[in-house]
Amino acid sequence: EAGVAQSPRYKIIEKRQSVAFWCNPISGHATLYWYQQILGQGPKLLIQFQNNGVVDDSQLPKDRFSAERLKGVDSTLKIQPAKLEDSAVYLCASSLVQGRDGYTFGSGTRLTVV
Amino acid sequence: AQSVTQPDIHITVSEGASLELRCNYSYGATPYLFWYVQSPGQGLQLLLKYFSGDTLVQGIKGFEAEFKRSQSSFNLRKPSVHWSDAAEYFCAVVRTGGGNKLTFGTGTQLKVEL
Does A53 touch chain B (CB under 8 A)? Predict the structure, then answer.
């Protein structure tokens, strides 16, 4: 089966600019997650979708981050405006059944804010 | 709050030597437990998982992990390390009945000396 697809792989922007990341999960996976991984740290959950509804966005900085999954399939994560501390790898993951089967991760988008 | 502790930030072993990476979690109930590996520039790959039953679980690439309820631990082991095992290893948990959020430890960076 095809894995979780993410694009772009790399992005460099200046602070205060906006950026968007795209994720296409494994076919049939109802649950989709966006994680932020800062260098030297473990991934941190930003937002979790079940189909096209938000399950958990408690750690999403809503003043600058937004995410959507309009048709319950692919998803976009946006940052506007970006700050230096947003430099990180943004990982998308999906799962068939919440929790038990582990998540399948994409290769991530490495964002550098200068 | 749930937490996952990986006490060793860096570990260096010689090729062919045995390996044990430590993981402790803080919960009242037994969560779902996972180990992931991340090679440089890559996404996270699931090595193994534990839900219930036999406390010794086998994973891919010759890895195994043992769940010890009395110690709240889920240590990862490999009898003989290969140079290609050099990577970062993350322990992660899902709190059962708690929204199925996957929470990661801070990771252990493994270096293999030839």
Answer: no
Interface test with A, best of B9, B95, B101, B103 (most A CBs within 10 A): B101
- Please give the helix or strand (H or E) that residue A92 lies within, else none: strand A88-95
Distance between the two ends of chain A, CA-based, in angstroms?
37
Residue labelled with tokens 């490999």: B78
Q: Alpha-carbon distance B60 to B64, whole Å? A: 8
Query: Quick check: B46 and A91 CB within 8 A?
Result: no
* C-alpha distances in Å from residue B95, one per residue of A75, B1, B71, B73, B105: 25, 10, 17, 14, 14
Burial tier of A57 (Cβ tally within 10 Å: 0-12, 13-18, 19+): middle
Question: pLDDT digits over A60-112, tens only?
Answer: 999 999 999 988 899 999 999 999 999 999 999 998 866 667 789 999 999 99
